[in-house]
Amino acid sequence: MGQDKYDFGLIGLGVMGRNFILNVADNNFKAFGYDLDEEKVSALQEEGGDTARVDATSDIVTFVAALAQPRKIMLLVPAGKIVDAVIENLLPHLEKDDIIIDGGNSFFTDTDRREAYLQSKGIHFFGAGVSGGAKGARKGPSIMPGGSKPGYREVQPIFEAVAAKFKGEPCVAYLGPKSAGNYVKMVHNGIEYGLMQLTSEIYDLLKKAGDFNNDELHETFAAWNNGRLQSFLVEITAEILKQEDDQGPGRLVDKILDKAKQKGTGKWTSQNAMDLGIPIPSIDIAVSMREISALKEERVNADKLYDRPTPTAMDKDVLAKMAEEALYFSFIVTYAQGLHQLADASKEYGYDLDLAVISKIWRAGCIIRAGLLEDIALAYNSDTTLPNLLVAPTFVEKIKSTVDAARELVAYSAKNGVPLPGLSNSLTYFDAYTSGRLPLNLIQAQRDHFGSHTYERTDKEGIFHTAWGA
Where are the alpha helices (DSSP H) in 227-295? Predict the structure, then answer.
């Protein structure tokens, strides 16, 4: 291994890739990038300054030759066929025990397929979810690796150096075999959808029920971020609400079209939860709301057809207090659903996930980082078999003190025509999960009546069928 070799290679020098490789270089690891786009290569060389520390090329042979063995090569390219194409381009130039890391949002079954394929060729492969956006990539993301453990061990010092730190602890840990890392990142993104939807609903409610102006909204979210709702999403919401529009008078938030886009990771979370049979309605509705938002023209036309109640004005202080409690309640419920899905997937796919470790690496760097995660980590540390966060003793108390506010606001929204689907679904999930008896006995009777699907009884063991109406 010559002195001139680089410690780490990165393919894909878009904004995320450029920021990540500069982060690696800032932490005293020599990094070498590759991109077919000469402009991106030049941009990295210019920003990096010292090519002995960080350099790049558009030639694959030069790229691979520049790396110390075993070569550690991370891909930050769009998920899908591009990942497979890049791997095929790389393979002829690699040697046994080299390491490929997929840092994109690849679907977890693709990661399983790629790992098995590369293992057969003597190449280590693992998927690593990277959260925190472009700023996180540059200053310290949360990283979720899973796959080849020997491969991760080689890269571990680099990842621990570049990851976000929480009280000195790096927000990265080996999560498990196969696609564990990509799966955890997928569910992370599902939780992110839920929290974003809930935050937008509370913002809307404060405007419609309390007539809060943007300054008051900014102050309210900023105050909440200094309390138990401390989180990245509440923090940036406060920032967004005070941002002036640089193209005209007023605040920018009021000029942004109410059509939300998505890249698919939230949808994957919902689809897979259905496959596993795990209920995550707060996340499901967040995905659906993005789809409803896309129907802008239809919504505008439908709005003209129906009379909507004029929301009854609420006292601002009373509303703000209830809104804070309801948002806290629904944040807990959303994390509980996502973690429940991770626990079940861990058994189904053999990941052997440690939910306390996952909660810890989410405490800094990632989009869903929040003060609440410290309590979540403690809950799973004290009971590793916890089936659901809602039955953890510390969370029972948190829920008891906030659920009444959620009930009040959901009732208000129904009467006043203010849609709060995320909060409503969170409350319904809570009420159903904590109900010792649900009316599904009737559904089982219906199924047996029309399809002879059988049922079980409450008073004796066995499987039964009835000739209904006979």
Answer: 232-242, 265-276, 281-293
> What is the four-CA torsion angle of 414, 419, 421, 424, rounded to 10 degrees?
-30
- Helix 265-276, helix 281-293: angle, nearest 10: 140
pLDDT of residue 1: 36
**Active-site residue, 374 included:** no
| Crossing angle for the helix pair 316-349 and 393-400, to the nearest 10 degrees | 150
Is 455's pLDDT higher than 80? yes
Question: In the predicted model, what is the mean pLDDT of the chain?
Answer: 95
pLDDT for 139 beyond 50: yes
Catalytic residue among 72, 185, 267, 398: 185
Burial of 447 (0-12, 13-18, 19+ CB in 10 A): middle
Burial label for 242, CB within 10 Å (0-12, 13-18, 19+), is: middle
In the set 115, 192, 201, 325, the catalytic residue is 192
400 is catalytic: no
Following CA atoms 294, 295, 296, 299 in sequence, which dihedral angle do they give, to the nearest 10 degrees?
A: -140
Ordered by where they begin, the domains of the chain are 8-178 (3.40.50.720), 185-433 (1.10.1040.10), 440-470 (1.20.5.320)
φ, ψ of residue 231 in degrees (nearest 5): -170, 160
